[in-house]
Amino acid sequence: QVQLVESGGGLVQAGGSLRLSCTASGRTFSSYVVGWFRQAPGKEREFVAAISWSTGSTYYANSVKGRFTSSRDNAKNTVYLQMNSLKPEDTAVYYCSPKTGGFSTLPTDWGSWGQGTEVTVSS
């Protein structure tokens, strides 16, 4: 199974930007869809964005549309999440996960979670 490592989180002021990275080890993403999820303290893990490795097609939660962009780098075996116009509501630990089969926004349908990277947005 593909193992993932997330990085790029940090502390940023509202309106600022961050770029998160999700790097695979063991083997390439191949035909996987790679999803981004986030979890704030006391809340359930929620879907943020996803990208098809093979086609580049992207999907976004309504809360981040127009602000976040997911992309991929085949040579580096890495998926990125560019986060612009950040809001305090974006504060959470962000995770990535690969998935085969049909697309889903339910965290329980995904697997191979990384350690997560924390994003904190201050006012």
Q: Regions with pLDDT < 50 over 5+ consecutive residues?
A: none
Task: Please give the radius of gyration in angstroms.
Answer: 13 Å
Structural classification: mainly beta
Shape: globular
Q: How many H/I helices?
A: 0
Separation of the first and last Cα atoms = 40 Å
Report mean pLDDT, rounded to a whole number.
Answer: 92
Number of E strands? 10
The amount of helix comes to under 10%
Textual characterization of the structure:
This protein is mainly β and about 120 residues long. It is about 0% helix and about 50% strand. It has a 6-stranded mixed beta sheet, with no helix packed on it. β4 (about 35-40) and β5 form a beta hairpin. The chain starts with a strand and ends with a strand. The model has no long low-confidence stretch (mean pLDDT about 90).
Short description:
Helices cover 0% and strands 49% of the residues. With 123 residues, it is mostly beta strands. The strands form two sheets. Strands 2-10-9-4-5-6 form a six-stranded mixed sheet, with no helix packed on it.
Topology:
Elements (H helix, E strand, L loop, with lengths): L2 E5 L2 E4 L4 E8 L7 E7 L6 E7 L5 E3 L7 E6 L4 E6 L8 E8 L17 E6 L1
Parallel strand pairs: 2-10
Antiparallel strand pairs: 1-3, 3-8, 4-5, 4-9, 5-6, 7-8, 9-10
Summary keywords:
123 residues; mainly beta; 6-stranded mixed β-sheet; 10 strands; 49% strand
